[in-house]
């Protein structure tokens, strides 16, 4: 397979692992670690979603002006890695978590449009359906793998947690072990985001034409 195709597909897989892990576990972090209610934790996902939209919009504008998509996901996943590191390092505050979620979202938003466009351009019209399906498969596989990985890691780090432990017991207990478990998981997500950025940097330089 062409390097210009399989490298963006791998980037897409790694990005999806980070993104869906954050989407699924950030509300749990807010409810268990910060004792917020479900409505507040849902609202604090909005900056993440808004960041994704903004990142995708900026990526499209940059590609239309330069025609060079290679470095966009590299910068984007570096931003996401920075956001994860900050989530793992800084004291948990709802407003700060919302802002860092937006930073991660901006990075995530740069990946999907650029990788999709590159592989479709390289593959050509005759193979556009095949590579588009492969891109969807990569994202779905990354989402499933990332969610499972972070779920196992997170719940392994929670002291005394097993299948009989109730959410109410976690909410009523000390929040410090919960915060520590989530922050460790954020560091692992940062490593995966860095790997995604490094992998994206390996992609050949492709110039998109206006034809």
Question: How do the strands and helices of this protein lay out in sequence?
Answer:
Elements: H1 3-33, H2 38-43, H3 46-66, H4 71-89, H5 94-109, H6 111-123, H7 128-157, H8 167-172, H9 175-201
Helix pairs in contact: 1-5, 1-6, 1-7, 1-9, 3-5, 3-6, 4-5, 4-9, 6-7, 7-9
The helix/strand order is HHHHHHHHH
Q: Percent of residues in beta strands? A: under 5%
What's the count of strands?
0
Provide the helix percentage.
over 70%
Average pLDDT number: 87
Helix-strand makeup class: mainly alpha
**In terms of per-residue confidence, which ranges show pLDDT below 50 for 5 or more consecutive residues?**
none
Terminal-residue CA separation: 25 Å
For the biggest sheet, the summary is: none
Shape: elongated
Radius of gyration: 18 Å
Q: Number of helical runs?
A: 9
